[in-house]
Amino acid sequence: MSTKSRSRKHRREKWGNRMAMLGLTLVVGSLAVVVGIRGSSLSAKDAEYRVKEARLEAQLAEEERRAAELEEERVYVQTKQYIEKVAKEKLGLVNPDEILLKPSQP
């Protein structure tokens, strides 16, 4: 083989190696860009989910407070005091030992 053909072959190999390196660099660069974009969108979703989680935790606390109030109300409704109150207010009933006073009309 002549030196000219070897040098051409060597140049082609160098050129091929450079193109392969350039191709790999482009692939790695494009992957880095895609990962960066994807990471920022995931960060935005994470922030949305954190806000939603805080809102749901506040709603849960409110519902737990409301459940406690309802439990207190349930216990109160079963007492004798509540039954007497409803009988007086809604039905107009009085205890046998109570005196009902009506204001005189002028």
Essential attributes:
106 residues; mainly alpha; 82% helix; rod-shaped
| Whole-number tally of structural domains | 1
- The rough form would be described as rod-shaped
Order of helices and strands: HH
In percent, how helical is the residue content?
over 70%
The overall strand count is: 0
Count of helical stretches:
2
Description:
By secondary structure, the protein is mainly alpha-helical. It has one domain. The chain contains two helices and no strands. The longest helix has 75 residues. The protein is rod-shaped and about 135 Å long. The N and C termini lie far apart (138 Å).
Q: How are the SSEs ordered, and which strands pair?
A:
Blueprint: H1 3-77, H2 80-91
Sum this structure up briefly.
The protein has 106 residues and is mainly alpha-helical.
